[in-house]
Amino acid sequence: MALLRLARTTGSEHFQQALLQRLLDLFGADHGAINTWHPRSFVSSVGIGYDLAAMSEEWNRIGGGAMDFITFAMRAQPEQADFANADDPRWQHAPAAWRAFLTRHGIVHQMGVAIPFEGSETFAHLYLNRGPASPALTPHDARALTALTPHIREALLVNRLYAHARQGLDEQTRPMALVDPQGWILFANRAFCTAWPELAALAGAQAPQLPADWLSPGSAKHRRLAAAGWTLDVATDGPNLRVALQRRPVHGAAALLTPRQAEVARAYSDGYSSKDIGLRLGLSPATVRVHLRNVYARAGVGSRSALRAWLAQNG
């Protein structure tokens, strides 16, 4: 009950920090993180015990998403905790770059669980890690975290709903986000998540952080954002900043899509698969998927049928 009261009355970043600290103490972990995701965008992250910004930058640089076996295991069985100690075969068979990454950040024993939010596309990854001086994790630890997961999920969902209601983000159709003074994204509404792939490309962002230049008007990066058709407003919101974006009206698909994106979009709307499109255009399926993500973000759609309707309307 105390945790739910905290969830109802505390901003997201403060609540998740408090929740994470309680779990670290309960499980005797040395450091950990709660990462919140949306299918089209990384939303937010809190961490205790390491430099989160440096860790996120390195994770992106080495392609951690393709090597992170514990996260794959968590996602395969939502709300079922999994763990890996230093002697785990998965650890031994992981790429050297991944083992070096974990070692640099003091992660020798790792436990985590994936937590979906009911009625939402958003989900959270919770990680509790132990360093070389701490004992290995046990099946009992995993069972205990699994048993706690429904309560953790409820607290996170309550906090998210109350915080969004207080901040008015979900009522907005324009992309909006709450960021800390360094630009790290604390909350983002659905429209911001949809726009994030394009915004990240414009910013050159490798982590869920807006450039400092974007938070100060008149800079070169801010002008680049405007040149791409976006206007940006920044206002203070307590100790944080509220960022609101608006796309200027444009006409026709050609005004929004590159020639290659238009080719991919039209082939996809005609029913071709990513593999078929790749063969037709001389692209890899992965490159086709990147183009499609950018097309979806620029068109503001979320399905093949919606893309087909958008192309028909915009020519």
- Helices and strands, in N-to-C order? HHEEHHEHHEEHEEHHEEHHHH
| Low-confidence spans | none
Count of DSSP E strands?
9
CATH H-level superfamily title of the largest domain: Transcription factor LuxR-like, autoinducer-binding domain
- Might you state the CATH topology name of the largest domain? Beta-Lactamase
The CATH class name of the largest domain reads Alpha Beta
Q: Shape, please?
A: globular
The CATH architecture of the largest domain is 2-Layer Sandwich
Largest sheet, strands/sense/barrel: 5 strands, antiparallel
Rg (C-alpha, Å): 21 Å
Strand percentage: 15-25%
- Across the major sheet, the strand order is 2-1-5-4-3
Structural class determined from secondary elements: alpha+beta
User: Number of helical segments?
Assistant: 13
* Mean pLDDT rating: 82
Oligomer: single chain
Helix percentage range: 40-55%
How far apart, in Å, are the first and last alpha carbons? 55 Å
Domains (count): 3
Characteristics:
315 residues; alpha+beta; Beta-Lactamase; Arc Repressor Mutant, subunit A; 5-stranded antiparallel sheet; 4-stranded antiparallel sheet; globular
Helix-strand layout with pairing:
Layout (H helix, E strand, L loop, with lengths): L1 H8 L2 H16 L3 E8 L2 E8 L3 H10 L7 H8 L5 E3 L4 H5 L2 H9 L4 E8 L6 E8 L8 H29 L8 E4 L5 E4 L1 H14 L16 H8 L2 E8 L2 E8 L11 H11 L4 H8 L3 H15 L4 H11 L1
Antiparallel strand pairs: 1-2, 1-5, 3-4, 4-5, 6-7, 6-9, 8-9
Describe what you observe in this structure.
With 315 residues, this protein is α+β, with helices and mostly antiparallel strands. Helix content is 48%, strand content 19%. It is built from 13 helices and 9 strands. The strands form 2 sheets. Strands 2-1-5-4-3 form a 5-stranded antiparallel β-sheet. Strand 4 and strand 5 form a beta hairpin. The longest helix is centred in the middle third of the chain and has 29 residues, at 139-167. The model has no long low-confidence stretch (mean pLDDT 82).
